[in-house]
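Students often ask why inverse folding is considered easier than folding. One informal answer: many sequences map to the same fold, so there is more than one right answer. In these notes we will look at a single instance of the problem. The structure comes first.
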């Protein structure tokens, strides 16, 4: 122990030197001021009563429904008519123009404010009229309360729910209670309300990591280098160095002691900031997240990367100025490498990444994250682009589905990448082998169609508020024929320029063409399609739809409500046999909290529901009664899930980019989540029932085709790399590998704080979630190796150099 005392004394002297620095005290004051500014932040939880612009999921449908409520006399005494006619006069005047076919733009904030004005005064409400609406259980319970049992907040909540019931398929689902941020007891001036789940995600995955990244990863590192750059040059002064070496210390341990002591500056700053944030989050926001304290060693570790460069430069040049300059140049190099890597990720790798797949005969098709459509060419072993992938393109390509062994259908949504409802009507496109896979227009799709599905009975078009179906025969007959039913332009989903519709002309032979146009804007079935969703079934976000192979059974999730629909159709025709084409068989509530997303799959007599919960839920197809709950391992989340055949088997893609099988054991009837398949870095999974093929896309654009029964490999698709992909793999990849990944340590911090291994981007509710995985260990290992190499070099240089 005595041998350690000299080194401890050196480290202690470094602490004293840091405490005597004026820059350190300036940093201390800045941290205290920041914590003092954050301390008054608080929150309150209240019922969700008002509408925000982001609550509007389908602005075009909302505008069309309100315009129809004013322009159509038959709707004056309906819920939507009551609401529309109670709106402010200026809004009604613009809605009348919409009903007359004019091109009128509404900001989402205008629509939200207009609806909020109705919440204050409910003269528009008529209990008898509202009996025809599909009401949530919460609304039914509030309607049963007497005047003396309901306060003002609950009254406003009830009014909002009544508006949502009158205008279905328009609004995003939100929790009944919201978190409102406050400052010094006052609500934030901007309308900012999220539920508790969103609040925790926002705080742990965005706010706290951003504060730590900027303050600790940039500002404090720079200040720390300014303070500590002189430690090594000062040590090399003749009088100082001789005095230190006169003690029983080795040179390399002396240097390491100085290095550890130099980290004292950042440690003293970090511990105050992190502990302060921890206490504010706990005392003011009731979020006691002990993982936040683990950011202290990580932040010091980030500084150690830069200080190792400063140490070597100080040894070599004995100048604090040169040490600071070289360290800043090293930091600039890291920024440049990070920017180049981000450029290749965003403009080379991501646009080529497979998003969805399908098979038609022996032909394999895939869509990409860059909204391209590709067909595999077995002769050249290459993907041939039918629609080119584009990192900055505006259009969106719907995931194709096969209607037979030589034909697929898809659609191109103009402006659909940034607005899921597109900028206008769009056609169902048919690609078949006879026409060399060139797209030919067929039926006009319902407005805001987001997903296509095919079954034995026909082709389904699923939009933001309903489901429509057509027969395969009608699709083929309409190829190349003009479509009379023109659809209006849909809203721009951007709340800043929201909600415009073009005044496309309807057929002159239709006297009520303006009503048809409004119906089209609302997402009603177009010519050739038939709406199948019963009036008492709502398809609200988060929405997901599962259709069985024969197409006579549909399970859908809207919000928390799981619904089972059955068809009265004859298997040989597309016409209903009697009465309603589809009817509601059973319903079930999924969980107590509103999920952020959901996936449905039907296999045999079982329905798999995968949400953001850390478990999989299995329901009986006939009754929707829950039959099993299977936990996910290692805090994983679901990216997508599909059915494998009709034997109660499912494939589940999880956030670790691995595919696992959920199987019901024949002997015990228990559900088991099997170990992951060998493939890693999986981007998406798909199933072709006709050929019993499980498709697994991995490593950007490679695909494995497996036998669904035996899971044996049937075929592999390995395309050649493009020139830019080769540069990325053989130049940029190695460059990023040998460079300490300090910028990626932000992901390590976010993973530590949030306890999650990934975060979601670009969720579209109809396909695999795009997950960005936090690089947790990789940057730590690369930075550790870099520090070890530079410190070893410094120790060797210091030990062998005669100073």
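Output (designed amino acids):
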């Amino acid at each position: 122990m005595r041998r350690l005392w000299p080194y401890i004394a050196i480290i202690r002297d470094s602490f004293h030197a840091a405490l005597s620095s004026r820059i350190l005290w300036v940093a201390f004051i800045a941290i205290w001021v920041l914590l003092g500014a954050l301390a008054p932040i608080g929150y309150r939880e209240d019922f969700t009563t008002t509408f925000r612009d982001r609550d509007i999921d389908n602005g075009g449908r909302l505008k069309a429904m309100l315009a129809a409520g004013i322009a159509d006399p038959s709707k004056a005494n309906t819920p939507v008519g009551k609401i529309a006619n109670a709106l402010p006069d200026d809004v009604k005047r613009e809605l009348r123009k919409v009903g007359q076919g004019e091109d009128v733009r509404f900001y989402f904030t205008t629509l939200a404010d207009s609806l909020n004005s109705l919440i204050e005064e409910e003269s528009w409400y008529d209990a008898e009229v509202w009996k025809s609406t599909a009401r949530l259980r919460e609304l039914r319970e509030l309607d049963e309360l007497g005047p003396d049992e309901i306060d003002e907040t609950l009254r406003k909540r009830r009014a909002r729910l009544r508006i949502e019931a009158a205008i279905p398929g328009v609004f995003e689902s939100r929790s009944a209670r919201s978190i409102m941020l406050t400052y010094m007891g006052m609500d934030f001036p901007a309308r900012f309300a999220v539920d508790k789940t969103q609040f925790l995600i926002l705080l742990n995955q965005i706010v706290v990591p951003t504060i730590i990244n900027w303050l600790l990863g940039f500002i404090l590192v720079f200040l720390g280098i300014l303070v500590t750059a002189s430690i090594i040059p000062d040590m090399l002064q003749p009088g100082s160095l001789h005095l230190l070496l006169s003690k029983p210390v080795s040179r390399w341990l002396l240097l390491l002691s100085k290095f550890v002591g130099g980290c004292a500056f950042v440690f003293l700053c970090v511990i105050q900031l992190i502990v302060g944030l921890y206490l504010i989050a706990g005392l003011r926001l009731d979020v006691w997240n002990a993982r936040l304290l683990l950011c202290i060693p990580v932040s010091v570790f980030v500084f150690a990367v830069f200080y190792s460069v400063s140490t070597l430069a100080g040894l070599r040049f004995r100048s604090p100025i040169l040490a600071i300059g070289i360290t800043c140049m090293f930091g600039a190099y890291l920024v440049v490498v990070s920017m180049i890597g981000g450029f290749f990720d965003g403009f080379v790798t991501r646009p080529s990444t497979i998003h969805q797949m399908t098979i038609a005969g022996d032909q394999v098709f895939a869509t990409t994250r860059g909204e391209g459509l590709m067909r595999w060419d077995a002769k050249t072993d290459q993907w041939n682009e039918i629609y080119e992938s584009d990192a900055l393109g505006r259009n969106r390509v719907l995931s194709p589905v096969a209607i037979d062994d030589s034909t697929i259908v898809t659609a191109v949504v103009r402006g659909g990448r940034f607005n899921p409802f597109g900028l206008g009507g769009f056609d169902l496109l048919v690609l078949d082998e006879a026409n060399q896979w060139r797209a030919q227009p067929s039926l006009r799709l319902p407005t805001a169609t987001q997903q296509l599905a095919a079954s034995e009975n026909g082709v389904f078009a699923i939009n933001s508020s309903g489901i429509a179906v057509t027969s395969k025969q009608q699709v083929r007959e309409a190829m190349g024929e003009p479509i009379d039913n023109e659809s209006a332009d849909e809203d721009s989903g951007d709340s800043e320029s929201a909600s415009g519709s073009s005044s496309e002309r309807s057929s002159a032979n239709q006297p009520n063409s303006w009503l048809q146009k409004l119906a089209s804007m609302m997402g009603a079935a177009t010519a050739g399609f038939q709406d199948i969703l019963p009036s008492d079934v709502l398809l609200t976000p988060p929405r997901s739809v599962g259709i069985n192979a024969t197409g006579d059974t549909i399970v859908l999730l809207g919000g928390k409500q799981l619904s089972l629909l059955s068809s009265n159709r004859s298997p040989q025709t597309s016409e209903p046999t009697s009465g309603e084409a589809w009817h509601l068989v059973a319903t079930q509530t999924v969980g107590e909290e509103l999920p952020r997303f959901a996936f449905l799959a039907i296999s045999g007599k079982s329905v798999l529901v995968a949400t953001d919960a850390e478990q999989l839920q299995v329901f009986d197809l006939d009754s929707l009664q829950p039959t099993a709950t299977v936990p996910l391992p290692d805090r994983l989340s679901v990216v997508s899930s599909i059915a494998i055949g009709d034997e109660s088997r499912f494939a589940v893609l999880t956030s670790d980019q691995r595919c696992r099988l959920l199987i019901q054991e024949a002997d015990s009837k228990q559900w088991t989540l099997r170990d992951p398949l060998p493939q890693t870095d999986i981007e998406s999974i798909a199933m072709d029932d006709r050929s019993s093929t499980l498709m697994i896309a991995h490593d950007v654009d490679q695909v494995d085709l497996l036998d669904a029964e035996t899971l044996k490999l049937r075929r592999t698709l390995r395309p050649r790399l493009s020139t830019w992909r080769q540069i990325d793999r053989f130049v940029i990849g190695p460059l990023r590998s040998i460079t300490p990944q300090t910028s990626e340590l932000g992901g390590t911090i976010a993973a530590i704080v949030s306890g999650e291994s990934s975060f979601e981007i670009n969720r579209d509710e109809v396909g695999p979630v795009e997950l960005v995985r936090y690089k947790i260990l990789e940057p730590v290992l690369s930075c550790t190796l870099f520090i070890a190499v530079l410190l070893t070099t410094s120790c060797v240089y210091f030990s062998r150099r005669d100073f």
